[in-house]
Amino acid sequence: MYSWLVFIHAVSAMVSIGPFFVLIPMLGKLRTAEDAVLSSYLDSFHFVVRLSKHSGHVLVFSGLLLLWLGGWPWNTPWIAGTFVVLFASLFFMARAFSPTIRKLRQPDHDRNKLVRKLTRSLYIYMFVLFVMLWLMMMKPALW
Hints:
The longest helix is centred in the middle third of the chain and has 36 residues, at 35-70. This protein has one domain. Helix 1 runs antiparallel to helix 3 (35-70) and helix 5 (98-105) packs antiparallel against helix 6 (111-138). By secondary structure, it is mostly helical. It is built from six helices and no strands. This is DUF2269 domain-containing protein. Keywords: Membrane, Transmembrane, Transmembrane helix. The chain crosses the membrane at residues 6-24, 55-72, 78-97, 118-137. It comes from Paenibacillus konkukensis.
C-alpha cells in the first residue's frame, strides 16, 4: 500500500505543477485577444487553478498518510520546511489568480496591468511549487 501512496503522491504533484506550463504561452495571447477568445483563455486559467487546487488536496492527504505510515517525524527539516512553504502558497494562491481573472472578465479593465500581475503570479507560484518539490525530493537537512 505504501508504494501505491507514493505513486498517488507523485502523480498528484505532477498534476499540481504540470498544467501551469500550458499557461505560459497563453500569457502573451491574453494581451491581444478579442473578447470571445479572452473568455476561453480565462476559462483555461481558471480550470488550471482549480485542477491544481484539487490535486493539491490529494497531494497533502497522500503526503500525510505517507508521513504516518512511513514513521517520519513532523520535525524532520524537509517536512517542516515543506509545510511552511505549503501554508504560504495557500495564502498566495487564494489572492493571486481568481481575483485577477475576475477583474479581466469585467468590461472596464486595464488589461496590460492585469496580465502583468497574472504573469508575475504564475511565475512566483511555479517557483513556490518547485521549492516544495525540491524539499520533498532532495530531503535536505535544513537544521
